[in-house]
């Protein structure tokens, strides 16, 4: 029996990183048992965990490249926005100087030429800063658009997924059997052939782990959720768990951004 290097939960069957040699369960490795079996002996030996992949240079996919480009643009925008408060203060100071200079010019005829030059210089600075303000406004618009695109990309990647909350972690559990038990309770048959992957996913700031199921198409996912929601009091006792009964919730697998919107 091995212990997962990420969640410290013991397991009988999981994966091993070919680089750091650490053992992980399928959920923390972010790979399904079926997907792991399909790799074959050679690719299993070459498989790397997320930490080792991060240390190794990788050829970005088109989606990753697009996301990295967006993030790079966001960082550039933030750097350009850092000086915004200073620029606004400069505008106020310059306008005050301009007002003072004009007042002085009215009472001092001997320095009219010098003051005219200074006024022209200040006015040019004001013009430049006002143009910069327009650029800043455009950057803020681009930043908002980039954030929206990232959130949309994240949610699109979850369209075929559901999350199941409330199912306790059990030693040597079979997640496919749990999905099958839920399907029987809600009267919706869901064979393995319709499932792309199923795994446990940690919940932020909690010892619990969700079950995330990725279906092969969105229609199966929508039908499964509809059937589950029709059963108002789905609980752990309904799917074969002993002891104190707990509610089981089946929902869309939403991104963190979409969950924030729903909580408002």
Automatic annotation (TrEMBL):
<feature type="coiled-coil region">
    <location>
        <begin position="122"/>
        <end position="149"/>
    </location>
</feature>
<dbReference type="InterPro" id="IPR011011">
    <property type="entry name" value="Znf_FYVE_PHD"/>
</dbReference>
<protein>
    <recommendedName>
        <fullName>Zinc finger PHD-type domain-containing protein</fullName>
    </recommendedName>
</protein>
<keyword id="KW-0175">Coiled coil</keyword>
